[in-house]
Amino acid sequence: MANNVVNEKRLKNYLNGEWLEPKEAIYAAVHNPATGESIGEVPLSPIAVVDKAVESAKMAQKEWALIPAPQRAEVLYRVGYLMKERKERLSQLLTMENGKVIEEARGEVQEGIDMAFYMAGEGRRLFGQTTPSELKDKFAMSVRAPVGVVGIITPWNFPIAIATWKSFPAIVAGNAVVWKPATETPFMAYELARIFAEAGLPNGVLNVVFGSGSTLGEAMVEHENIRVISFTGSNEVGRNIASKCGQLLKKVSLEMGGKNAVIVMDDADLDLAVEGIIWSAFGTSGQRCTACSRVIVHENVKNRMEAKLLLEMEKLTIGNGLNEHVKVGPIINKPSLAKIQRYIDIGKKEGAKLLAGGFVINDKEFARGNYYAPTMFTDVSPNMRIAQEEIFGPVVSLIPVKSFAEAIAVNNNVSFGLSSSIFTKDINKVFTAQRDLDTGIVYVNAGTTGAEIHLPFGGTKGTGNGHRDSGVAALDVFTEWKSIYIDYSGRLQRAQIDVD
Known about the structure:
With 500 residues, the protein is an alpha/beta fold. It contains 14 helices and 23 strands. It starts with 12 loop residues before the first strand and ends in a 13-residue tail after the last strand.
């Protein structure tokens, strides 16, 4: 089946309901990170394509906003059913272009399906508020209004889930979308655009442009008719986007990664904690913004924890994610491999003790792919770079602590604030931790990954700028609040003045 997954070999941009080849574009190969084989080509489009996409979106949005929200939602229901019908095919394609193991790919596609049905339900809600007026014969309420044309810029590590977190609430709220997916994973964008068209979304409401972030992403940020930018990616790029959007008084939503920790107290179920750490640290080969990259472990159980983790790490199967038995797939590309190796060298120089891994796997069947051995450091101090900076690979650092209070302090002593976790049987520690951990997501007796679509996704500090993807909070990014006052007194009434 996998050999027949890709229908198109050379992609085109999707503008106003048509697949159009960009003029003067160069093309880049899209590689399967497990095998190194090319599965197609993606255009690196010139800036002019953004103007065309925005023009199409602006025209379509005016009509789309006039369609009642429950009818807009019907499109999302159809999208969800089509994704459900094609789940296995989409999952296979996702694994081919992204590398994540097929089990995780199926989970990601399911996340998109869930998001479609959840946001379709918002078509019959999109709640505002009614409130008593302070004046007689006067009615007061607030409603959500679409912003207009929104730009979404999505990463390669969750090429369909994150796109649905952003596009589905934007569309059900009455906006039109210009979407720039990552060039490493363009085929999921191609498939989702086809599904939207088949589901009956009017031409121009969704437009997909392929190209580099430095070219198309910059053009989207600076375009006067794109009023919202929703971005998931690196902290460096996110800061640049925020700066430019601030100058332009443009709404911006940022999600920029994490340095997530699992806290293991001395009363924890160690076997459960190890299971959670293995899944959180090495699932998706550590290429999740919620991946566990730190284990803050009480010194009383540190040695036992290390031994159990090493034993489970030895059981991890590495290889092509299309193999149902593989648990750790490849790294997305060669530059990412090199970055991981640089951090391993940094950790060694800083004095951390390397217990496992720490090398690129390039022998025999792995030679053509991008594989890195699951890696664990111990005796890591909280201020080491490997304990502070996002590595984005299958690398975990064990940090010993003497107390619960110290564990909380170490968790919070990083510039990111996305996800955190604690394993303990003490209910007092549970409630104290969920209050004091300064991350946007907190897990108890589970790893740092596994967010569900009906709750807000995002974090604090360097992880973002306060907005959230997913859940009903996502609507806040793509709508404006409009307050409405209806005076039926037949005379001019002045608020705050004409009050008895």
